[in-house]
């Protein structure tokens, strides 16, 4: 093989690797990633009124599903199907990645029986043995309605104790669900969260590596270029504080037009906590009326603590 041919092969390989990387990044983004997530549902899981809701919610989020008998009744498992890629040799590769999350559905009647007989932990132990290394979510469907129609079936304290035990000793989370829609929403939202997990982990690692803690990928973020956008960012930051309305934020900005000026005001004021207390508030951007409304000492103290306290656990 000549040097020219070798160089050409290297270029082809690099282009294919770049195309593969770009495709991976695109498929990882929210929305796109859903179509690669598969839920494997035991047929018994779909028995009952909640079955159609589960399938409907999965379809709404473009999550794929398979109905297949599991090792344990009423269990849902998940796996990610990686996109097909073309190798340099022209071969098509595709693989699946099982995820360490499972869901088990238990009826309210079954839970009551297990609590009475003290067998709830043994059921959870069996699940964790069949699916080692997985994170188990226990869905209890219809407990409230069952207890209403069967008075004195089991005490509330005994039920809470049994559920707390599986939380502490088996690392198992549980959800008490009363409607079919809640069951469907839980399975679909879990699938969506698992689909987006690689993207969110990548973003987290990126921000940690760059020590960057502000992102502009969500709706409502303020774009800042140079000094443009700083005023809007300052206003949005104030409005995020509980009980600070747009009128309150505008009143503060009218006296302290920038965050640095506000910080200097707090730093050099004789009575920092009450610095903003007497600032008048214009209602809906109109003139100050005879009945003057002010920010007040409580709100002023809260804002002061937010911007001046060095305690990470400071309560506002």
From TrEMBL:
Gene3D superfamilies: Crossover junction endonuclease EME1, DNA-binding domain, ERCC4, Mus81-Eme1 complex, nuclease domain, subdomain 1, ERCC4, Mus81-Eme1 complex, nuclease domain, subdomain 2. GO terms for molecular function: crossover junction DNA endonuclease activity; DNA binding; metal ion binding. Its cofactor is Mg(2+). Its main location: nucleus. Belongs to the EME1/MMS4 family. PANTHER family: CROSSOVER JUNCTION ENDONUCLEASE MMS4 (PTHR21077:SF5), EME1 PROTEIN (PTHR21077). This is Crossover junction endonuclease EME1. It comes from Culex pipiens.
